[in-house]
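Progress report, Aim 2. The chain analyzed during this reporting quarter is listed below.
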Amino acid sequence: MTTVLHKIGSFLPGGFLAHLSAIVGFLLALFLVARLMSERRAPANTFAWLLGIVFIPWLGVPLYLLFGGRKLRRLAKDKSALRPILPPMCALAAEHVCEPVARTVEAAGGYAPVGGNRVRFILTGEEEFAELERQILSAKRSIHITTFILGRDATGRQIVELLARRAREGVKVRLLLDALGCFLSSRGFVEPIRRAGGEVGRFMPVMPFASRGSANLRNHRKMSIFDGSRALVGGRNIAREYMGPVPYAKRWRDFGALIEGPGAVVLGEVFTEDWSYVMRRPPEETRADAQAGGAPSMGSCGLQVVASGPDVPGDPLYEGIVAMIQNAERNIWIVTPYFIPDEVILRSLIVKARAGCAVTLVVPAHSNHPVTDFARRNFTRELTRAGGRLLQYNPGMLHAKAIVIDDRVALVGSPNCDLRSLFVNFEIGIFIHSEPEVVAIRAWIAELMLDCSPPVPAKRHLLSDVAEDLCRLLAPLL
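Predicted structure tokens for the chain:
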């Protein structure tokens, strides 16, 4: 083939191939610019990619092809037809939900609120590990787990052994691992599960062009569904830093929930969609296990499951958060490990604070990503100037995610309050619409605040200002 091309090239005018490659490159760049402008992104993010594609195409074009995509349109179209099978009595009337938030989320592509749930919040890593172990051992038909990180440590090893044991006993075990977050544990480490008859899927390999999406699109969802009727969700990955059978001095503080009832069925459908995409199989076989038990009413909690990311046509998680903030009347409580909001969320919080709403933001004093700590400084400074309150968690890393508005509605799950979670990652969020559960989350935040303090004003100097500005410039990519 090389010889043929060389002979053809010898008959072509000098520089023809160079001109042809320039034209092809220009047309490809033009196509990518059109695609970039059609995607809803933060302006700074759009501008950064635009500069790279137009002025450094030899670098910007391949980088965008690998990392720049935000939505998988064909996947979003396919998934929009997949909905869980729920009996009519699970639907919630408008008077039982925070209607502006529920309506916004559903209109943007989220699921409708469902009632009949029993929700118990899990406050420690030891408690979550014990509950995960208990649910794995008690499952009768299916165990479906999605995690961003599976640690190659005692915690991860014990869960792998439990899953392999249940697979040998005939339970349908499906483990979905993000290919980047589980880069070191998605192959040989989980081989016992495969040998026992279970299945392990790797979500979007990071090797160039090895997957059907951008390598930048990561599955940050954390959920475990058992027999289609019980589910664990929250911020904890399966690793020693997040959970374990015994206390660990460096364990991160986090938050999770056990959901029993129709909400677990909806979460099972999200897993079914992800699994079908990764394994390239029809969803019916996974759904048969996930929904075989139906959707029994287990309690009185109303909630709304929100799967957000490249597989959803709109941005229901982001728009739901904006609706929460803009409908707040008295209090806004936000707990997040990383605070890098877009302009709309930041301005909404500032306006609410200036209007007299009590806005409280709780973040770790020092997170596991120092760059994000620098990047948040400008945002938190603007918020506190407007009257908001900033508290820093001192004992260690705070990895919990929660938003509470007026004791009326709360959000928990996997998303951080940063641009990556809001616009890039595959995330799972739970909007809680029942007052007792919302009050319980607020009480947990109040307890958390006992270990927090206002930040000590730091002296600003040229080096710190430059570092802060550079980190904020990189914020859209963090």
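The first strand starts at residue 114 and ends at 122. The chain has three domains: 16-68, 74-93+114-301, 316-477. These observations will guide the mutagenesis work planned for the next reporting period.
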